[in-house]
UniProtKB/TrEMBL annotation:
InterPro entries, per the entry: AB_hydrolase_1, AB_hydrolase_fold, AB_hydrolase_sf
GO cellular component: membrane
Highest classification ranks of the organism: Bacteria, Pseudomonadati, Bacteroidota, Cytophagia, Cytophagales
Protein name, per record: Alpha/beta hydrolase
Keywords associated with the record: Hydrolase
Domain AB hydrolase-1: 22-253
MF GO annotations: hydrolase activity
């Protein structure tokens, strides 16, 4: 269902119910659909919402407004407009950086007062993301090309996934709006929000695949933990960047364990 959020219609998948809401945010070039299997495993206990960020999935794509700050404001508005009380933010890759910025506003925004925790899968760090220049240019030039999307899928997964999942991942890549695609590669991924990290007061639990080629485990130890020292990092063996697609049962169990602690 689409909701008018912060001036843009965002598509939000919802299932389940419970006193605690889990808000799921997707990776660059992905969509809310990456969370479907995880939500199926958790919706008997929690209200689950998965958001297509602006310019991705089925959400609208304005011509501009793709900074990390604007995406963070979108999520804050989702919390306010949908009347969400106790909640946990679950961010993946690009949206991990967004979730971290949302958390810095907890003491300033009444709608964020009941944020309980962050669970982040291979999050983009609060400092500029270490994307090699040649890879950045390859992604920019390959926008909208199926061969490029197929190669990206191959690069960021380590475990076999179904043909249906592969087609969804490729489709999500290809339907990403060009303004959103270029904004993340040219500016969003390069944003430095590290000076805001002391304001993150909630528990932060990080999960990363041992074979993640996009944001390897060392990115978390070298570029996240120095700025969010109270965060914990767990590693899933023989798994790549797309944890919700590759190991949804492991992700669901991790979330349950961390939010119950």
């Amino acid at each position: 269902m689409k909701h008018l959020i912060n001036g843009t219609r965002l598509n939000i998948l919802e299932q389940g119910s419970g006193p605690l809401t889990l808000i799921f945010l997707h990776y660059f070039g992905g969509s809310a659909r990456e969370w479907q299997s995880v939500m199926n495993l958790l919706s008997d206990r929690y209200r689950c919402l998965a958001v297509d960020l602006r310019g991705f999935g089925d959400s609208d794509a304005p011509a501009d407004g793709y900074s990390v700050g604007t995406m963070a404001e979108d999520i804050t508005c989702v919390v306010q407009q949908l009347g969400i009380e106790k909640f946990v933010l679950v961010g993946h890759s690009m949206s991990g950086k967004v979730a971290l910025l949302v958390a810095t506003e907890q003491t300033n925004r009444i709608e964020l007062a009941n944020l309980q925790a962050l669970v982040l899968l291979s999050p983009s760090p609060p400092v500029p993301e270490p994307i090699p220049d040649d890879e950045r240019q390859k992604l920019l030039k390959g926008y909208g090309q199926r061969t490029s999307a197929e190669q990206t899928l191959k690069n960021i997964t380590a475990k076999p996934i179904s043909d249906m999942a592969c087609e969804q991942i490729i489709a999500d890549d290809l339907r990403s709006a060009k303004p959103a695609w270029e904004a993340w590669l040219k500016s969003g991924s390069r944003e430095n929000i590290s000076d805001r990290m002391p304001a993150v007061r909630v528990p932060v639990s990080i999960l990363v695949g041992s074979d993640d080629q996009a944001l390897p485990p060392n990115v978390q130890s070298e570029l996240v933990l120095p700025y969010v020292p109270h965060a914990t990092v767990d590693i899933v063996p023989e798994t790549g960047h797309l944890l919700p697609w590759e190991a949804p049962d492991v992700v669901a169990a991790f979330i349950s364990k961390k939010i119950a602690a």
